[in-house]
Predict the structure of CysB family transcriptional regulator.
Amino acid sequence: MKLQQLRYIVEVANHRLNLSATAESLFTSQPGISKQVRMLEDELGIQIFERSGKHLTQITPIGRDVIKVAAEVLDKVATIKVMARQHVHPEQGTLTIAATHLQARYILPAILKGFMARFPKVAVTVMQGSATQCRAAVHDGAADLLLADEPEERSELLMLPSFQWQRGLVLPKDHPLAKATSLTQAELVEFALVTDGRALSTAQGTDCAHAESRIACCASDSDVLKTYVRQGMGIGVMATFAWEPQRDGDLVLKTAPWLPGGVAAIGLRRGAFLCGYLYDLIERLAPQLTRERVEQYCAARTGEELEALLANLTVPQR
C-alpha cells in the first residue's frame, strides 16, 4: 500500500468518480490512476469502486470507510510535514484565514499589520466569505483559522470566544432623530430600516416586532449598509465596531441597548497542528486566549469539559 494510492482514491471520490478530472488535478494520466486503484483493491481484497466497463459508477460501502480513513492518513502525513518545517523554520510558513466581512474589514487589518511585521516570512492569505463558507474552509483544511461574527451552534470546529460586540443605529446628520442621545424602539416606528441581516430581537413576542416590519432592505456588508443610509433608504442597524469616525463623519451613530449583539468567535479544526505563529495571531486577536489556554481548550475531550474551561474565561467587549 502506497500513500500515492491513498491519494488517488481520495481524489477520485472528491472529483465525483471522474477519472479525467482527477488525473488533471494530480498532473498524471487516467490509465495510471486506474492501474494504481486496481492494485490497491487487489492488495486489500476488496472493491472500493463499482464499475460499468471502464467507468466508475459508485463507491462501495466498504470503499467509503476506506476512503475516509485514507483521507485521515493523508491529513496526518501533511501534519507531520508541517511539524517538521516548523521545527526547522519556526518563523516561516503559510497561514490562511477564513473571515466574514466584519472580521476581514474591521478587525484583521490592524492585527495583521503587527503580525506580518513580527513574522515577515509567513505568507498570509485572507479568504472572505459567509460564515458557512468560512466554516467549511477550515473544516476541509483549506484554511487554518476561522473568524466569525458569532459562534456556530453544533459546529464540528473548536469555537473560542474572541470579543463581545453590540449593535447601534446609523443615521445621516440631518435626520430628524440625529440629535437624540439614544433611540428607543418606539421612536423608530415611522422610519424604514436598513439592517445587517440579523434579527432585531432574540426573544419572541417583544416590541421589536413592529421594527421588523419596517425593514426596507438587508446588507450584510457594513460599507454597503452605510452607503444605503447615505442615500436616505433608512436608518442603519449594524455592529458598532464597524463605525469609523474619520470615514463616517457625515453620519451619526446612536446607541440602542435594546438591540441584540453577539460574541465574535475564533474557530479551529479539531486535532489540527497549530504553528507557533498561529498562537501568536490568536492572542493578538483575543488577548485572553493565551497559548496555554488554547492548548487546554484543544485538549478538552468532551463538550462539557470545554464548556467548564470556558466558563472561567473573561471575554472583552469591543
User: Anything to note?
Assistant: Residues 61-88 form the longest helix (28 residues). The mean pLDDT is 89. Residues 76 and 249 are 51 Å apart (CA to CA). The two ends are 53 Å apart (CA to CA).
